[in-house]
Amino acid sequence: MLIDNLDHQQQILEKLYLIRDLEEAIAKHYPEGEMRCPTHLSIGQEGVPAALSVCLTHEDLAVSTHRSHAHYLAKGGCPKAMVAEIYGKASGCSGGRGGSMHLIDESVGFKGSTAIVGNTIPIGVGLALSQKIRKEKNISVVFVGDGAIEEGVFYEAANFAALKNLPVLFVCENNLYSVYSGLENRQPKGRKINEMVAGLGLKTYSGDGNDVVSAHQLLTQVVDEIKRGEGPVFVELSTYRWREHCGPNYDNQLGYRSEEEFLSWQKLEPIARFEQWLADNNLMTQQAMANIRQQVKETINQAFDFAKTSPFPDASTLDKHVYATGEQ
Ligand SMILES: Cc1ncc(C[n+]2csc(CCOP(=O)(O)OP(=O)(O)O)c2C)c(N)n1
Ligand SMILES: [Mg+2]
Questions:
Q1: Half-sphere exposure of 159 (CA within 13 A, CB side)
Q2: What residues does the ion ligand 2 have nearby, CB within 5 Å?
Q3: In whole angstroms, what separates CA 205 from the centre of its chain?
Q4: Is residue 12 within 8 Å of residue 54, measured between CB atoms?
Q5: What is the rounded CA–CA span in Å between residue 302 and residue 296?
Q6: Distance from the alpha carbon of residue 296 to the mean position of ligand 1, in angstroms
Q7: CB contact set of 147 (below 8 Å; sequence gap of 6+)
Q8: Alpha carbon of 110 to those of 61, 100, 204, 305: distances in Å?
Q9: Is residue 108 helix, strand or coil?
Q10: Are residues 302 and 84 in contact, defined by beta-carbon separation less than 8 angstroms?
Q11: How far is CA 239 from each of CA 35, 78, 100, 303, rounded to the nearest angstrom?
C-alpha cells in the first residue's frame, strides 16, 4: 500500500476537492465583476499540492507564485481569508491589498506568494538558511513553474542552496507552458529540466504530478531526505493547466496548444485517478467520497458568503502600510 496512513488518504482527497471546487467557484463568480484582480487557476494541477500537503507540518515553510491558490490551501491556509483577499476585502489574508497573487498565512507557514516570476525563489532559500542557522528540523518549500527555471535568479539561489546544503525543496510543476509559449519554443531540443538542475549540484527527481499516489510517495521520501540534513532537492512533476493562463475561461481556440493535447491531459486527471485508486483498493466507498466532497462544498460556500459580506478596507487606511500575516 503506497499511502498507508488512512488519515493521509482522506486529507489528500479533501485537498483535491477543496482546490478544484474552490477554483471552480472562482471561475463561476468571476464574470460577476466583483473580483477585481487577475486570477491564475490551478484546475487540472491539483495533484502535486494535494500530495505534498500531508508531508509538511505548519512549521515547514512555503513560498509560491502567481498561481498560488492551490499551494496556499495545501499548506493549510484559511479558505475564507483567501476568498476575501480575492474580493479585495479588509478581512482578506493581505488586508484586501494584494489580491489573488499575494496570499499569505503565517500561522500555517505559508510565507507568501508574489506576481513576479522567480521573485520568491531567493526568499524561500533565505528561509531555509534561517532554519539551518537556528538548527530547526523543518524545511522550506519553493513552488515554481517550468517558466521560472528560465529566470537568472533561480540559478543564483539554487547554487547558494547547494553550496550551503540548505533544507530546501524546489517543487517544479511543469505544465509545459509559460503563458502561451511551449517548452519547445523556449528551450533547446532534448533538454531535461531536472538534468540541467542536477548540474548545479542539487539532487533531482522527476515524476507524474497527476498520479497522486506516486507523487505522494516521491515527495514523502524527498521531505525525509531533506529533514535528515541531506541538502536541497529539486523535484520536477508533470501536470497540465486546463483553463487559460490568467482568468476563468478555456483558451484552446487561441491555437498555442492543440485540442488533442488538451484532451489527452484531461484523461490523466488527478482527482478521478485518485478516487479510482481508493475504490480499487477498497479504501473508501463512493458514498464516503461524496460526503467529503459535500462538506468541502459547504466550506467553500461559507468562504464566498464571508468574502461577499465583508467590508472593503476603510479608505482612510489605504495610504498606510499593512503588514499582513494572513491571520484573521
Ligand atoms: C519577471 C517576470 N517576467 C514575466 C512575467 C509575466 N508572466 C506572468 S506568469 C508567466 C508564466 C510563468 O510560467 P510558469 O513559471 O511555467 O508558471 P505557470 O503560469 O505555467 O504556472 C509570465 C511570463 C512576470 N510576471 N514576471
Ligand atoms: Mg508553466
A1: 5
A2: 145-147, 175, 177
A3: 18
A4: yes
A5: 10
A6: 30
A7: 117, 177, 178, 179, 181, 186
A8: 6, 14, 24, 24
A9: helix
A10: no
A11: 27, 25, 21, 27
Which secondary-structure segment (H or E) carries 255? Answer: none
Write the residue with the smallest CA distance to atom 11 of ligand 1.
178
Side-chain half-sphere of 169: how many Cα atoms within 13 Å?
Answer: 30
User: What's the 1 CA to ligand 2 centre distance in angstroms?
Assistant: 32
Type of residue numbered 160: F
Please tell me the distance from the alpha carbon of residue 80 to that of residue 306, in angstroms, as a whole number.
Answer: 6
At 26, list the grid cell: 472562482
First to last CA, the chain: 39
Dig out the grid coordinates for 234 from the structure: 529539486
Residues 183-212 pLDDT 10s: 999 999 999 999 999 999 999 999 999 999
Helix (H), strand (E) at residue 307: helix 286-309
Q: What is the pLDDT of residues 84-135, one digit of tens each?
A: 999 999 999 999 999 999 999 999 999 999 999 999 999 999 999 999 999 9
Contact 326, 93 (CB under 8 A): yes
Cell of 84: 476575501
The size of the chain, in residues, is 328
Chain center to CA of 274: 18
Cell of 153: 535568479
Instruction: Answer whether 3's CB lies under 8 Å from 207's CB.
Output: no
Q: Is the dihedral of CA 252, 257, 262, 268 positive or negative?
A: negative
Q: Distance from the CA of 116 to the center of ligand 1, in angstroms? A: 7
Probe residue for ligand 1, chosen from 179, 242, 251 as the CB with the greatest number of ligand atoms within 8 Å: 179
Is the whole model's pTM more than 0.85, yes or no? yes
Please report the DSSP string for 30-67 in residue order: GGGS---S-----TT--HHHHHHHTT--TTSEEEE-SS
- Per-residue three-class SS string for 146-165: HHHHHCHHHHHHHHHHHHCC
